[in-house]
Amino acid sequence: MDYRTVLTTCAYCGCGCSLYLEVLDGRVIHTFPCKTGPVNEGKLCVKGWNIHEFIHSPKRLTRPLLRQNGTLVEVSWDEALDFTARRLREIKEAHGSDSLAFLSSAKITNEENYLIQKFARAAVGTNNVDHCARL
Amino acid sequence: MTNSIAELEDADCIFVIGSNTTSSHPLVATRIFRAKEKGARLVVADPRQIQLALKADLYVRQNLGTDVALLNGIMNVILTRNWHAQSFIDERTEGFDEFRKVIAGYPPERVAELTGVAASDIIQIAEWYAKAKAASIVYCMGITQHTTGVDNVKSLANLAMLTGQIGRESTGVNPLRGQNNVQGACDMGGLPNVYPAYQAVTIPDIQKKFQNAWAATTLSDKVGLTIPGMLSGLAQGSVRALYVVGENPMVSDPDVSHVKKALQKAELLVVQDIFLTPTAELAHVVLPGTSFAEKDGTFSNTERRVQRVRKAIEPLGNARPDWEIIMEVSTRFGYPMHYGSPAEIMEEIARVTPSYGGITFDRLDGPGLCWPCPDKEHPGTKFLHKGRFSRGKGLFHAIDYKPPAEIVDAEYPFWLTTGRVHVHYHTGTMTRNSPSLHAEMPEGHLEIHPEDAHRLTVRQGDRVRVISRRGEITAKVSLTTRVDRGVVFMPFHFVECCANILTNPAHDPIAKIPEYKVCAVQIEKAA
Amino acid sequence: MSEKVRAKVKDLLDSGRIKGFLGLRQADGHLGPHLFTDGRELDALAVGDLKRPGDTRYPLNKQLLTLMRCDPDDSFGVLVRGCDERGLKTLITWNQVDPAKVVAVGIACPPELAAACECLKPYPDEFVDGGKVEGSTFASVATVDALDLHSRLTHWLHEFSKCVKCYGCRDICPMCFCKECSLEQEDLIHTGDLPPENPIFHLTRAVHMAGRCIDCGLCNEACPADIPLRTLYKKVAEIIAQEFDYRPGYVEPGEKPPLNILGEAPEH
Fold first, then answer.
1. How many Cβ atoms are within 10 Å of B319's Cβ, its own excluded?
2. ipTM above 0.90, yes or no
């Protein structure tokens, strides 16, 4: 039995509540508010209390998918990544950098947001980067 | 937010406008409740009589889209009664005379007609807010999601400057960020006009700095496209490829039918997400990323607090952390990226992002750090604009009221406004996959005033067709006096009862934010 | 206070008496719940209360239930204060915990915490550290009782109307172990938008906790609206004590609460 409590930050609204995920044998089974969290001081809302529930949803994507003959089929990472990189490059070469656009996300980490805009700007050469701040 | 969340509880007047705080930011509502227990006056202005309105010392229900008029009216009262902070205005602001001229045109009697708020209430808000020792403004998407969103925000800034209610503890203008890391996405340069820390892409020196830091051959000096621009670019063929990470424009964007057509025209649609969202269903390639529980990193909350995200479990199946996926794509594209961990990425962020200059993972244990945190010794910044505004002097904007883009008429006689409910979040990708939350509210609904329902001969739970100039949906009705006569409300989380089929893509000319909060619809009983 | 606790836990772990110890650990800049399984990691063990009374109390008994359900053959240790010990006893009464599989390591609460909690017995029967502080009376209940009936009703309705329906009072509660929760019965309590239907949500829970609440106050500390739930449940506990001479956790394990002794079905 591997049982741990892991301190992290809630992924729902902009409050940024500190919480402990209760992990049993690789599954997140419960959530507790962190008593000394600077924002929430031991409290959570209904979404925070239940944040572990979506993590293991059977609907989670666990394999890359590629559209073949109109339908999305499971493929290897190599195939999916090579396809993505190749098509991005082909479109850039054929139509210029500004024919590509990127949506980064308010759901992913700072580090990931940084990398996406760096990829768009430094690798692809476009400032077509936005996310749903307005939505 | 200019100020931190905890400071709210020591304000002696809190003015909440366009924020359903108990539903959308419950842990901010905690501080508002506490302030009230300590004797603060609470003023709530919202077209819906939200939970906080029931606890307010004064609740006013302004007509949809009349916030500028309401705020100008409040400022008119403050100026005519001499409740403004003249020394603050003299020392710290500019543009006051021009502003004052416009405000003169908004006496409370006129504003009462425009907004539906009684003149006496306007005077009362003005007095409480202006005379408070520390007054704080709290707002959210009810202010920003309008064609006049920027005007609305500037008007709130005007109000705070006029009364000197900014730059001190428990004051300020405090927007509540809707998503956990929307602050961070903006800070990191997830915007078409700026690099990390809001450094403009158009300034040659800054461009050069990033060109060097990133060892890039050239960087574009052209401001890029916003989401609406990308979508119309796709529709017109000037944009050919769209790479979407963790976003779901097929539910979140206005006029979804138009969005779908645009996405279907893409030569390449890459979607990186944790669920097969309606947007991912249209993709050419879908890359399975990981949830916050499966990776390390940081989020920046609404008070600019950078906090740690810690990996609790291994990625599900073959899913991979999003930072790894981006590195792989970039490297295969021909621009190698090799970071050993998110902590290493943060080291680079700190080098190029002045406001994050002192942030490293090992400093983020405990309460984290609020930016600006320019160097390793800096303790972070609790509230902004102390003694000085970012731009030097605070600028008053002279702003006139403009009506919303779409007005009710004989054909579309109901005002529709949209928003969140307490158990769901954005497009429902996470919350609707959470059994407990789903059970609390399994489907969407339309809030309607009982008198309107009676006229339409619909009862609680009946289904109605809701039709706008963009499209139509059916929805179950919920009878409530939370909304006024002639106004209906829908949560936007539900794809099968999708409010954004109806909403108006007309957007603010500067911020490009769509007018989700106001459009005109007709309603009929469904067969 | 941690030294004696640490030594005791080290003994228990090293001797193999317990498989793990549920306590509090200093990590990531916070003091949080942790299962210690190795005597060598006990340096990080702490007992809590950093700045304010109760600011680092966690529902360790609730975690203990999870562990025992998953691993019924092993024994576990748990850090207990007076309230937690009452919780353990009551969980044993309700057949949720096998007393042979639990080793409680007790600490007595400091005077500030005991006073803030208005705890009747702020120490467990046995404790390895801390000093015995006399219990207090329920002053918060007396304050509300002193109001006239109308003011009392106004007071509670005002408090309940702040509820944001987070269910945190239930979710943090070490005594909430039902598989089906009456708060989720659609025909009893309607779902839908905020605010929740008043006062049915909170009164349903108050009645349900009668004879079960051990007065730990974690619900109160978890409430985003600062509803004085502890005062409400203390009041309910007083009624049960007056009517039935029963206080959960203050009686020996096995003595059934009065509301759960089923008599004959009433005759019609």
1. 22
2. yes
